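Key idea: predict the complex, not the pieces.
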Amino acid sequence: AQSVTQLGSHVSVSEGALVLLRCNYSSSVPPYLFWYVQYPNQGLQLLLKYTSAATLVKGINGFEAEFKKSETSFHLTKPSAHMSDAAEYFCAVSDWKGSARQLTFGSGTQLTVLP
Amino acid sequence: DAGITQSPRYKITETGRQVTLMCHQTWSHSYMFWYRQDLGHGLRLIYYSAAADITDKGEVPDGYVVSRSKTENFPLTLESATRSQTSVYFCASSTIGTGALNEQFFGPGTRLTVL
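Result:
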């Protein structure tokens, strides 16, 4: 079964600093990988997804992620953090189980942006 | 309103009571999903449905029942609520499973407390 591991349950950065949220995957086949963001008291919103078309994936709100097969990683980055980026971020992998492709989520990383 | 909605948004109940959480989507998506979100666990799949009258178990189905008589609705029932079912529940929908081109769209969640 495929899985993802998010390193660091809490990350704090200063406004304007680089954001780096780590995600490593475990998969025996080329994975489909996703990053979702959850703002307080809201559902999850898709940031970006990797579908093997390109290793560097650009998403919404200035975020991007790079798929590195040699490192089994799909880390999320943003060059300059904004206060509005404070949220919880989830990495997920898509896998066929039963009659559907299902998402398996990491445990999440809470991002705090300091003024 | 268009989109995916959940009701109620907040619910407090007692151990042993039956509780039903509602999910409604207006996109006519084929697939619908129920997740629970607990601290340190990310989101875990409870049940999913590929179409009306087709449902299947996810990772943590015990203690839950689902039905899907209409494409747009996917209620989740806790037949006899337990304290361990205190959680935030998210409903999601997608067009064709969770394949490379199909993201899941999430509702705002229901916060359930079982006393």
